[in-house]
Amino acid sequence: MLRRLHFAIWLILIAVFSCEDTEIQNNIRVLVIGNVTDQNTQPIANASIRVYADADAFGADRVLLGEGVSDASGNFNVTSLFGPNELFLVDISFGDQFSTYRYQTNTEEFTPGDLTFNLETIELKAIANFNYNIIRESGEDNTLQYSFSYFDADCVEVYEDGVLNETQSNCNGMRFIGSTLNNLSPNVENRSFIVPLQSQVEFTYSLNEGDVISEIITINSAEYAFEFSY
User: Fold this and answer.
1) CA 132 to CA 186: how far, in whole Å?
2) Model's pTM, two decimal places?
């Protein structure tokens, strides 16, 4: 009884304090269902499922519509408020050691069949911090051009009328980071980025505009340390 009272108060607070531009239809509820696994297809229990709506494409008026967690088998079934808005989002996460997933669609003119968003199987990957230092130990005037290419750990899938828009989606896409080191800035210290555990990072470099050399690095620990000197 107390839980129902708290839920009723929560719905009232949403209706009263939500930004007026984000529309919620009081007579409609939708189900958000699916299953969460890790990269080894093992179920993830207690993954966080949070459903939002926003009339603003830039996220200024975001309203929480529903939330829940996955069960021991990784399954989730979340009842959510609903309305015609530019953004309808489902965010799935599990602590700081796994990647995140986002389902995004526009519900201004789209309502799913049977009032159900079936996300099917969502994979969250174990992640690692790639920590790197690049130090110049040779003489002055030596320059180094370097770059890292790696897979993004997180996934955002954008749907239009229930169909995946691959152009707007970004699911485990390639990322690039790099720079030129010279007398003004000879070192890079205590930098990091996040990658999927057991993925590969390509390190490419050229000393004094010479031959380009590439190394493939397999990320086999949650805190991977990469040291390079030139």
Assistant:
1) 14
2) 0.83
Residue with tokens 């309203």: 63
Return the CATH architecture of domain 2-123: Sandwich (2.60)
pLDDT tens profile 100-153: 999 999 999 899 989 999 999 999 999 999 999 999 998 889 999 999 999 999
Supply φ then ψ for residue 204, to 5 degrees. Answer: -120, 135
Q: Which residue type occupies 199? A: S
77 neighbors 16 (Cβ within 8 angstroms): no
Q: Tokens for 106, please give them.
A: 């526009």
- The DSSP-derived string for 18-81 is S-TTS---TT-EEEEEEEEE-TTS-B-TT-EEEEEEESSTTSTT-EEEEEEE--TTSEEEEEEE
Is 127-229 a CATH 2.60.120 domain?
Answer: no
